[in-house]
Amino acid sequence: MTVGAADSGTGGAGTLRLRPPVHRVDRRAVTWWRTRILLAGAAPVIVLVVLGSLLSEARWWLMVPAVAVAVATAAAAAGMPMWWYRVHRWEVTGDAVYTRTGALWQEWRVAPLSRVQTVDSERGPLEQAFGLASVTVTTASAKGALTIPGLDHRRATDLVHALTEATQATPGDAT
Amino acid sequence: MNAGADREADSADHDADAATGTDPATGTDPATGTDPAAGTDAEWRRLDPRTVRTSLLTVAGVCVAAGAAIGFGIGSMSLFWTLVTVLPASAAALAGAVVVERVRLHKTRYRVLPDRVELTKGIVVRTRRSISRDRIRTVDLTAGPPARFFGIATVKIDTGEQSPESSLSLHAVARAEGERLRADLLDRGRRDGAPRGDGRLATFDPRWMRYAPLSIVTPVLGVAAYGAVLQVARMFGLESDVLWVFDLLGRLGVAGGLALVVAVGVVIGVIGSLGLFAEMWWNYRLDREPGGTLRVRRGLVTARSISLEEQRLRGVELVEPLGVRTVGAARVDAVTTGLRTQGENEDKERKTLLPAAPRGEAERVVAAVLAEEAGPTSAALTRHPVAARGKRIGWALGAVAVPVAALAAIGLLYSWPAGLHLAWIGAVVGAAIAVALALDAYRNLGHGLSGDYLVARHGAVRRSTVALQRRGVVGLTARQSLFQRRRGLMTITATTAAGSGAYSVYDVGADEGLVFADEAVPGLFGPLLERRG
């Protein structure tokens, strides 16, 4: 098992922790996340800059926020995707699906296969461009869904297949 | 297509049978002899004809109210013109109600088959809805005053799913027929061979009324009353009269006027909350019925009957809002699947098994509902690390600091001395309240195991102690913020199909939380745990 720098879990010697799931997400997810941040940041920056160049009186009040948003976006685009990439991991153990997600707030989720109700994969336009897909596993709980983002789309299809079969093979009424 | 046509023909047959004299009350007519497996319930039944009278009474009430409002409200209109406009309109409304209700009754039929319940209705667009009996989760009866007078009730059969097709409403049938349907459709637990002792679990005590004014309803109603007065005054152009009252208040001085306004608001709020509580909870009874259902019956004016299948019960939640908690009372909610939690207020109230009552009574009801010796919500709980206290105090002070800082900044920028005074007063008072709530919130944190139940407690303004069946847990989540990671804290969440879907143990020590989670729901976190160092 490879334990990366971001896996410094609960810290301290002899403490108990949840081991990181085995699989990382696809390497292309980093570029996908970065593109997403840049696009989300670019929209307000463009609006502010265009308005700022048109309205000379309010130029100062529009350009300063534009620069601030641009700087924040650049910083997020530089730092967050790699952080997410290190944290996001997933695994299908013998009888459960196990994921770790987040960055500032990390989350470890486990759902036993006997309680899984649906397995979906989803591909937005950006994900399609990068050949990626997200897999969502839901249980009977309204708040218990597990999402694995940024998987290679073929791998995602295989995973959905395998999980669907495994769930059908596992007895239980999922509630 | 074919099946639909067959069904229509089938339904026509049954109509013919009904016409030839099948008595809907006894329901048996050997001569019809259709499907022997379908039993006595197979024929189509109609709604109760008294529904028409009930609707008529309701419409008449509306007419009288509207007529009175028009008569008194529009002062310029003479009695003659009032009568000339109101009477024909009322007559038309009443006649319309009779016609519509008659046709609706004529066009609505339902039947209970061994495997499903069917309803056909609709005047212009005919709809036919069928609900599988396996999926039925609740059967609720409701009767407003006119319906109670005529001895009928509305039956709502619900599968608890989040779609409009998932419920079926019979408006209205005879009360006895409603009771029979309810008993019939919910009588499934018996087959599982686990019918527990029947009987009364709790009965209303009028002394519980004293908890009603302590709820959030009181201030809300008080404020709403003033809003309503102003609104009505504006509608009838009486604003100047209302403003005259403000003049009068002004003469009492700021403090006196304010005190009077608040006092009147409080009185209205108290009366309103008492009235609402009585309407909701008077005649409250909680029973365990032989079919394996818990049944709540309540209501002063409108009588309601709410049934919950015990098989669907995943636990209970003991809820203590701050006001009620200070006088040692608590409410009990069911944590159950197949009960819509979103939606109208009425739906939210449905999960309540016991209204605000003395804590001892609440504990007793919890134990009785779960059929345990001692209620798991009264078990001794493990406290959480001190770091959780620091976090709560920090958050509480932060919440006070933001508005205070904004006020102070405005005061400084615009040299507004009153703003600065408000800022420091707000800071002192706000900080005291915030710290007190934060300390209380920390004291209330706790978790533990009690028999088959996982118990978690948190909250200050609304303290909640949830007891969740361990086998009802369908997943586990561990969550850590950067701050929590540094302090070795963790939030463990158990997801479930019931209630709000997830119940959390907040800010527990990371080691302890993981061990607890593995103990509570073995096999989920267990294989994933490792010890470092």
Automatic annotation (TrEMBL), chain B:
<feature type="transmembrane region" description="Helical">
    <location>
        <begin position="80"/>
        <end position="100"/>
    </location>
</feature>
<keyword id="KW-1133">Transmembrane helix</keyword>
<feature type="transmembrane region" description="Helical">
    <location>
        <begin position="422"/>
        <end position="442"/>
    </location>
</feature>
<feature type="transmembrane region" description="Helical">
    <location>
        <begin position="55"/>
        <end position="74"/>
    </location>
</feature>
<dbReference type="InterPro" id="IPR005182">
    <property type="entry name" value="YdbS-like_PH"/>
</dbReference>
<feature type="domain" description="YdbS-like PH">
    <location>
        <begin position="442"/>
        <end position="513"/>
    </location>
</feature>
<feature type="transmembrane region" description="Helical">
    <location>
        <begin position="393"/>
        <end position="416"/>
    </location>
</feature>
<feature type="domain" description="YdbS-like PH">
    <location>
        <begin position="107"/>
        <end position="183"/>
    </location>
</feature>
<keyword id="KW-0812">Transmembrane</keyword>
<dbReference type="InterPro" id="IPR014529">
    <property type="entry name" value="UCP026631"/>
</dbReference>
<dbReference type="Pfam" id="PF03703">
    <property type="entry name" value="bPH_2"/>
</dbReference>
<feature type="transmembrane region" description="Helical">
    <location>
        <begin position="253"/>
        <end position="278"/>
    </location>
</feature>
<keyword id="KW-0472">Membrane</keyword>
<protein>
    <recommendedName>
        <fullName>YdbS-like PH domain-containing protein</fullName>
    </recommendedName>
</protein>
<feature type="transmembrane region" description="Helical">
    <location>
        <begin position="211"/>
        <end position="233"/>
    </location>
</feature>
<feature type="compositionally biased region" description="Basic and acidic residues">
    <location>
        <begin position="1"/>
        <end position="17"/>
    </location>
</feature>
<feature type="compositionally biased region" description="Low complexity">
    <location>
        <begin position="18"/>
        <end position="41"/>
    </location>
</feature>
<feature type="region of interest" description="Disordered">
    <location>
        <begin position="1"/>
        <end position="45"/>
    </location>
</feature>
